[in-house]
């Protein structure tokens, strides 16, 4: 069974971007700590020199160091934003592309099992949540640990071991606070992972079904349900916000406690002559500078559970084993004669059989009309011929080759489909048509539209081919949408054509006009037409009844 999409593989693929981002985060934080430390040394030394307690103060070297640290901090922070965000965008793009590619391997029945709103949420919001994994957790945590450990080692080696231990105190306390925050927020974070998608689904379903809700006088009931979900999500967010505030307070308290320890130890060392005043000022402000590195980490690790939940949701969506097997050495499609031998099919072991030992031959250039009551398998047969699903038993042959041995992409370009409910995307007329042939010129698009009977329609559009179509074709009529889909089909120029209920939902005059247009274009193509009413179809050679 193919593995679901693995996040760690994608992280490994972008490891150099991630390492560069983590290095820049560390450099930015180190420059900030250095800036404060040198400032502490310089301010203390200047004060002591002003009191006459320090002789021969060199102001140029520390001044240059302060300026260098300030410039490095500014530049590294700018570069860090560029690199870390670029790395994150590349990660999200890789992850989303792999998830989408994985979904494209599923068959028609598996895709039907995906809830549209929930799937969209997983492809967008859940994957976007994963940007926190690097920007909020991996990079900042590694930088804070390395910086604190380095400062503790430097203080222990070059100043005094006790001061190094005081700095190491942060390495003991802050990870404990971070883990405490993560554990306390587990339940609420997990609930939020499920609550936000549920709220979005409810909002989408409410908007899509608003007409029915009004018709059945259920708007108030749906509003109350939506308000309950919203209140629950807001309550979880408030609870987690209070936890984040508490954790930041604890980290701040730990930082001040570390500074207090440094002052207690440092004053003793100063009194004994082991260190001077400027060094003590340097150490104190260096410890204060570490607070910038640790402040966001408890809340970031608390949000890690939301990243995990989002990742589990995406993995669950891609865990289904694709049932459309792609051969290792696929063959190219050829010819236009179709033979179905001993076909048996049902959607699941607990579902009834739709076909059992079914045979059908379609000669080259023949047009057949499939008729029968709803549920008899007309559209299912079209999906089997398109190889959107595979039969349980039996074979479907193109000439003498089983469809399962053919290159799926090349075969689907070999067979044109006019679906029962053609999809128009929110884009220009030209881009909707170029789904069929991306390289098609404007002249070819115009010819396809004319063949589909949309010449006058295009003449009336203000921007011609650049006119925008609303989502789901909301600004065109049903007949115009069907003809736009026909123009897209014409551009495929496929030798085999499947028309699924081409005239359903159209008035008699529009249906007959569309049929005449289709009949002219079909010519000698092998054609399978699915219908409840054969009288409105283009000319056909044979009527096949499915029962």
Q: Record the strand order, biggest sheet.
A: 6-9-10-3-11
The total domain count is: 2
Specify the CATH architecture of the largest domain: Up-down Bundle
Number of strands: 11
SS element count, helices: 20
The helicity comes to 55-70%
Q: Rounded to an integer, what's the Rg over CA atoms?
A: 34 Å
CATH names the topology of the largest domain as ABC transporter transmembrane region fold
Largest sheet properties: 5 strands, parallel
Structural class: alpha/beta
Overall residue-averaged pLDDT value: 86
Gross morphology: elongated
CATH homologous superfamily (4th level) name of the largest domain: ABC transporter type 1, transmembrane domain
- Beta-strand fraction estimate: 5-15%
State the end-to-end distance. 36 Å
- CATH C-level class of the largest domain is Mainly Alpha
Uncertain regions: pLDDT < 50 for 5+ in a row?
A: none
What does this structure look like?
The protein folds into 2 domains: 7-318, ABC transporter transmembrane region fold, CATH 1.20.1560.10; 338-545, 3-Layer(aba) Sandwich (Rossmann fold), CATH 3.40.50. Strand 4 (393-398) and strand 5 form a beta hairpin. The chain contains 20 helices and 11 strands. By secondary structure, it is α/β, with parallel strands linked by helices. It is elongated and about 110 Å long. The strands form 3 sheets. A 5-stranded parallel β-sheet has the order 6-9-10-3-11, with helices on both faces.
């Amino acid at each position: 069974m193919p593995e679901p999409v693995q996040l760690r593989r994608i992280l490994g693929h972008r490891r150099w971007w991630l390492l560069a981002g983590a290095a820049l985060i560390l450099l930015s934080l180190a420059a900030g700590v250095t800036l404060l430390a040198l400032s502490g040394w310089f301010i203390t030394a200047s004060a002591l020199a002003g009191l006459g307690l320090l002789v021969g103060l060199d102001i140029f070297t520390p001044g240059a160091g302060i300026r260098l640290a300030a410039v490095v901090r500014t530049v590294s922070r700018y570069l860090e934003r560029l690199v870390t965000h670029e790395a994150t965008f590349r990660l999200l793009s890789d992850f989303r592309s792999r998830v989408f590619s994985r979904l494209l391997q599923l068959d028609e029945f598996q895709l039907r099992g995906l809830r549209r709103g929930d799937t969209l949420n997983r492809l967008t919001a859940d994957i976007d949540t994963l940007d926190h994994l690097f920007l909020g957790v991996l990079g900042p945590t590694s930088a804070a640990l390395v910086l604190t450990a380095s400062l503790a080692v430097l203080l222990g080696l070059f100043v005094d071991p006790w001061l190094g231990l005081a700095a190491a105190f942060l390495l003991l306390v802050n990870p404990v606070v971070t883990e405490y925050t993560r554990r306390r927020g587990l339940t609420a974070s997990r609930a939020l992972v499920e609550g936000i998608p549920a709220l979005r689904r409810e909002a989408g379903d409410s908007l899509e079904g608003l007409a029915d809700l009004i018709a059945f006088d259920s708007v108030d009931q749906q509003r109350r349900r939506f308000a309950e979900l919203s209140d629950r999500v807001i309550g979880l967010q408030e609870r987690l916000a209070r936890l984040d505030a508490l954790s930041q307070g604890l980290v701040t308290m730990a930082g001040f406690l570390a500074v207090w320890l440094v002052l207690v130890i440092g004053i003793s060392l100063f009194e004994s002559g082991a260190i001077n005043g400027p060094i003590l000022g340097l150490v104190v402000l260096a410890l204060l500078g570490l607070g910038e590195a640790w402040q966001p980490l408890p809340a970031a690790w608390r949000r890690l559970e939301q990243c995990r939940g989002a990742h589990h949701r995406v993995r669950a969506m891609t865990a289904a084993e694709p049932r459309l097997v792609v051969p290792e050495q696929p063959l190219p499609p050829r010819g236009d004669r179709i033979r179905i031998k001993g076909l048996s099919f049902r959607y699941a072991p607990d579902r009834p059989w739709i076909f059992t030992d079914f045979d059908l031959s379609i000669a080259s250039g023949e047009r057949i009309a499939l008729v029968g009551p709803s549920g008899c398998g007309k559209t299912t047969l079209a999906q089997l011929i398109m190889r959107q699903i595979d039969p349980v038993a039996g074979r479907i042959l193109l000439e003498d080759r089983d469809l399962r041995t053919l290159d799926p992409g090349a075969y689907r370009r070999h067979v044109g489909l006019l679906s029962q409910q053609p999809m128009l995307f929110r884009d220009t007329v030209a881009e909707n048509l170029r789904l069929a042939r991306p390289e098609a010129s404007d002249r070819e698009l115009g010819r396809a539209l004319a063949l589909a009977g949309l010449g006058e329609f295009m003449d009336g559009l203000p921007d011609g081919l650049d006119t925008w179509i609303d989502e789901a074709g909301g600004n065109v009529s049903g007949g115009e949408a069907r003809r736009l889909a026909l123009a897209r089909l014409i551009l495929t120029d496929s030798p085999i054509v499947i028309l699924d209920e081409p005239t359903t939902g159209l008035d008699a005059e529009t249906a007959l006009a569309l049929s005449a247009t289709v009949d002219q274009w079909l010519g000698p193509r092998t054609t399978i037409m699915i219908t409840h009413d054969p009288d409105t179809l283009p000319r056909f050679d044979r009527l096949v009844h499915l029962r």
